[in-house]
UniProtKB/TrEMBL annotation, chain A:
GO terms for molecular function: ATP binding; ATP hydrolysis activity. Keywords: ATP-binding, Nucleotide-binding, Transport. It comes from the Bacteria. Pfam families: ABC_tran. Residues 5-230 form the ABC transporter domain. This is ABC-2 type transport system ATP-binding protein. SMART domains: AAA. SUPFAM superfamilies: P-loop containing nucleoside triphosphate hydrolases (SSF52540). Gene3D superfamilies: P-loop containing nucleotide triphosphate hydrolases. PANTHER family: ABC TRANSPORTER ATP-BINDING PROTEIN ALBC-RELATED.
Automatic annotation (TrEMBL), chain B:
The chain crosses the membrane at residues 12-32, 82-103, 124-151, 171-191, 198-217, 304-327. It comes from the Bacteria. The keyword Ligase does not apply. Residues 265-285 are annotated as: Disordered. This is ABC-2 family transporter. Keywords: Membrane, Transmembrane, Transmembrane helix.
Amino acid sequence: MSTVLETTGLGKRYGGTWALRDCTLRLPAGRVAALVGPNGAGKTTLLHLAVGLLRPDAGTVQVLGRTPAADSGLLTRIGFVAQDSPLYPDFTVPDLLKMGQKLNQRWDSEFASARLERLRIPFDRKVGKLSGGQRAQVALALALAKRPEFLLLDEPVASLDPLARREFLQALMGGVADDGTTVLLSSHLVADLERVCDYLIVLQESRVQVLGSVDDLLAEHQVLIGPRRAAAQASPAGVASVIRESHTDKQSTLLVRTNGPILDPAWTTRDLSLEDLVLAYLADPSAGVLPGPSPLGMDLTS
Amino acid sequence: MIWMTWRQHRQQVLFVLIGMVAVSALILPTGLRMHDVFTDSGLADCLRRTGDAEFVTVGPGSNDCAELANQFLARFGNLQPLAVLFAVLPLLVGLFLGAPLVAREVELGTHRLVWTQGVSRLRWAMIKFGLIGTGCLAIATAYTLLLSWWIRPLNGANGSRFTVLIFDQQGIVPIGYTLFAVALGIFAGTVSGKVMPAMATTLVGFLAVRLLVAGVARPHFQAQRERKFPVTSQVEPNQLNGDWIIHVGIYNSSGVQVAANQQRSCRPESPSPSPSATPAGPTPEGCEEGLYNLQIYQPGSRFWLFQTIETGIFVALAAVLVILAVYRVRRRIS
């Protein structure tokens, strides 16, 4: 499987503060990856490094096998929608499409205008007068019109209402399904992205905390409910680590990462949602999970 | 990129054209009238006769140019503040074309849109700065040609086109000022990333550099010259020969200054049959033997040399600022 985004020890510093640090990750081609983390975790910094808006202060970043900041030819192969979907407010949609055509070697204007017509975006109004949801759709259409191999979106739905969120994500998935475009989209809320993403990167305190395919992560993690247990008591067989535990007088609830089946009849197991999983990790910065056998599987929890 | 630049700045082009029309509407009628009067009154001919002679004879009939010049200034001198007003034109270009160029992109976040299209930031900056710079060059050339024509009669009547603020309105220096103002605006925008602070920086920076160059550096572009002549003399310096008088004073025979920023001219007790000559008597106060006037000046013939030097300074500053702005666009803004 080829790699679209690969970073090694990547770091970016603003003044004396590291916005991103020791970031090592690999994003395989064809994935729709969610980049999740609290505000200030370094998501935007990572995306800006990946599209060449920023240059790293440490480590390396490779996109489609090339170095973004040093290689402007790469810009024609990636699509990027920055936070708040910036557009020239005094441009109309046709103006923006013409801009894309003038500034890109590869540009599918018809594809973009057909999409926007289908969404009933008015073409004769300045985009500054459009609603937030419409602007986001226009920005997405502009990014997709490049027919990018890799599409990066920074908090694309953060400012949208729930309906517009849903429509945006539908449009996104419809737009990338045919081409097998790799997508990396950031959000501070995983719930927004749960339905669309199949790969997860959790950033916390400027480091990568969780990295892996959503299916694998969900299969690996379970909620165990059983009789109340002492804090020091050994975990049941099959548990690799306990991420979070809570206790009532009678029973304990554990969120665990497994390394085998849980066969102990004292415990009932329950699957958990991606959101629960992410929240559990975010609540405990010292825990971390990175893919199993991987050349880059180094311990980033230290 | 060319289309993009046009699309983004076509409104400004419209404003500039409107502004040029407004300025022309002010300049053309007043200029035509001044040129007519300048010729018809005989001032033009008189000045041509006197040329750039260093001294002229004192006395009736010998100094009619000054008389005509005074008449001309009495009529048109009130237009001179207009020329001062035009001194802000380069600044306006810097404030409204230069400062928002990058700052507005960053303020709206659209730099992240345009810099992630298939055009490198270097190319973006080169084309954008290049086209805007060329546009400003055209604007500056047009208005300096217009102003140089307009101000010519006033140059003649004032006796010099070299004095501060008059020098700055004609020739080629307005082009240098304009390019500098635009480059300063662009650079300030790359630093602040906000339009208002960029405009404020441009305003302060432009005025500071202009004052510094005009007030401190310009008088010393070339070694200054001295001219001494006795207080009591048959001749006095030709005030209309185009020299830039930087300092005047009255000194006594031992070289001590007795009065600063003054010149004195006493008629000699000559046998010339002058009706205004005072009868012989004691030497009037201030006209004692040995007192002399001193002028420190730059000769009018250096006008174009000074224009070139000053334009060179501002164009060089503009070039440095543009290079820094390109660097910041490529490396420092995200």
